[in-house]
Design goal:
By secondary structure, the protein is of the alpha+beta class. The protein is built from 3 helices and 8 strands, in the order E-H-E-H-E-E-H-E-E-E-E. A 4-stranded antiparallel sheet has the order 2-1-7-8, with helices on one face. A 4-stranded antiparallel sheet has the order 5-4-3-6, with helices on both faces. Strand 3 and strand 4 form a beta hairpin. The longest helix has 17 residues. It is globular and about 55 Å long.
Length: about 200
């Protein structure tokens, strides 16, 4: 069947997004297990109902490239090329408190936060943002970066509290294809730090 003609002012609405691209740094195995243990412990202690994210999904989003209806190869290629230009030695990160971000009812992220232990991460995120900006693809790089690791989503607002620090060394970053609504992350490319 031929495509229907379109008329100015009567374009069909855009398809809803099904695919997200982001650059992230995932927790190493030990840190991810400690993060998952902390989620379970807080869930019990605070009577939270949200399901803790599995350890292999725990990550820091460095840059949310954008959401799409289908994966755009041109954007993937541009981000791959830009990310490959960023050079930095591995760095340690430390998250030492938890708090809830505001969100829709029932969907408030409970996250790990940090302070001085995130200086290397902040430098790296800025360098990566500069490289992405030069590609002129995706959404504009956010001017503000709030490093966090989402542990679970819940309706209860948790005030900030200190926790036993969770530390690891970031040795790589990853371009991730997230299938929206399917809780699936597909790595598309990896770049080692210090290489």
């Amino acid at each position: 069947m031929p495509d229907q003609p379109s008329f100015p002012g009567f374009e069909p609405p855009p398809s809803p997004p099904t695919d997200r691209l982001f650059l992230g740094a995932f927790l190493d195995r030990d840190a991810a297990e400690r993060g998952a243990d902390l989620s379970r412990s807080l869930r019990k202690e605070l009577s939270l109902r949200g399901r803790p994210l599995p350890p292999e999904r725990l990550h820091i989003t460095l840059h949310h490239i954008d959401d799409y209806a289908g994966l755009p190869p041109r954007v993937v290629a541009a981000i791959r090329d830009a990310a490959a230009t960023v050079r930095m030695d591995p760095f340690e990160v430390e998250f030492d408190r938890v708090a809830s971000f505001s969100g829709r009812p029932g969907n408030r992220p409970l996250v790990l936060r940090g302070g001085d232990g995130l200086a290397g991460l902040m430098r790296f995120q800025r360098a990566l943002g500069a490289a992405i900006t030069r590609t002129r693809v995706g959404r504009p790089v956010a001017s503000r970066f709030t490093p966090h690791v989402t542990l679970l989503y819940d309706d209860i607002q948790v005030e900030e509290r200190a926790v036993e620090p969770i530390r690891w060394t970031v040795n790589e970053f990853i371009l991730v294809h997230s299938l929206l609504g399917q809780t699936r992350h597909v790595p598309l490319a990896r770049w080692p730090l210090g290489g």
